[in-house]
Fold this sequence. Notes:
Blueprint: H1 2-47, E1 53-59, E2 68-74, E3 87-94, E4 100-104, E5 115-117, E6 122-124, E7 131-133, E8 138-140, E9 149-155, E10 158-163
Antiparallel strand pairs: 1-10, 2-3, 3-4, 4-9, 5-6, 6-7, 7-8, 9-10
Amino acid sequence: MNQEKTKTEPENDSRREFMMNMSLGLGGLAAIAVSIPVAGALLAPLLEDKPEVWRAVGSAENFPIGSTQLVKFENADPKAWAGTTAHTAAWLRRESTDKFIAFSANCTHLGCPVRWEAEAKLFMCPCHGGVYYHDGSVAAGPPPIALRQYAVRVADGQVQIGTAPIPITNFSDGQKT
């Protein structure tokens, strides 16, 4: 009886070891199978080419020197399901015959839309009282930084604003005219 027991222990140990290795292997395969889609979803936006496009917002003649006007344009990568979120806006100011500045229409504090007060020459955020000077720098309130600026150029008499899928990012050529 004692000899029988000693013969079966090594068999049980090898079977137990085999089953444990098999369980670990199958568990590892299952973990890899589950993690591939998750990793793909997390990494795909980083690897995709981000289109940057120039959007025409109007003829240069329509913007008098010294004026600041709200312009609306479509984002660089509008999705069919995006609806109105595929559009954004900017405050466009004509400084001289060939110089334009486009400020983001959203406050840098929490993203509320800012409005231009022409008489005071200030951008005002109605949500938390943020105030910006005419050059976009912070005058008062909670905004941590100045209004963001878009790249602007004039091509074929049309004022164009550089935009990307994420509207306020560094436009690749950084051209601000």
